[in-house]
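Q: Could you fold this chain for me?
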Amino acid sequence: MKRRLTTALALPAALLIALSACGGGGDSEPAATGEGGVPLLEEGKLKVCTHLSYQPFQFERDGDVVGFDVDLVDLVAEELGVEQEIVNTPFETITTGAAFNTGECDLAAAGMTITPEREEVIEFSEGYFDANQAVLSKADSGISDEAGLAGKSIAAQTGTTGLQYAEENLGDAEVITYEDLPLSLQALQNGEVEAVINDNGVLYDFAKENTDYAVGFDIQTGEQYGIAAKKGNTALIEKVDEVIGAAREDGTYDGIYEEWFGTAPAS
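A: Sure. Below is the predicted structure, expressed as structure tokens.
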């Protein structure tokens, strides 16, 4: 399936704060509905915000956006009788709720951890993917635990739980922030930093394709990803939970998981 990709403009930080606080800033009232009367922003579309690239959850390949999250949301779009349209937007416009409050998207699927802070401003589905933090470095770096990061520089992505963990627990390392995962990985490859902290799924995927690098260790943070909608849009979130729940029951979820991760999910 070919999916249309649009790119949203970055909003100033002050405006992000205002939009997340007031829940407004644009006309985001539903103008259409999907099957079953679920409210949508545009007729025939399920507009889904993400932040590219976050392989294997969502990334561009041969001119199309593909990935684990993309395939799951395709199931939701199919159930609603519409097509998924992906909107590439800064991650913090999603986590603050600004992307919903300005009418950019109906849903967001961005390898995004459910946290109490985020739940205050956006509506989450039930968890659909288990994740932990991990640390990636050169395969011969010798970094195998947190103590091995002392005195070293480590890249973390802005607005993520990885950055939060690094700031709270890796005080002996120099934490340097980057806008997205590709910039963090590029900094490691260019020698600007000595390690990267991010979710384990994306770092293992990178190491699989770049054998000069390896995940030195996982950090058991016990996170779960959720698909998000505008705060209060329970009808759409209930549909997401219904569709993913059915996919788990009939084996569709396991098939998608195995396609992107090479193994069935742990039971």
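A (continued): Residues 57 and 258 are 13 Å apart (CA to CA).
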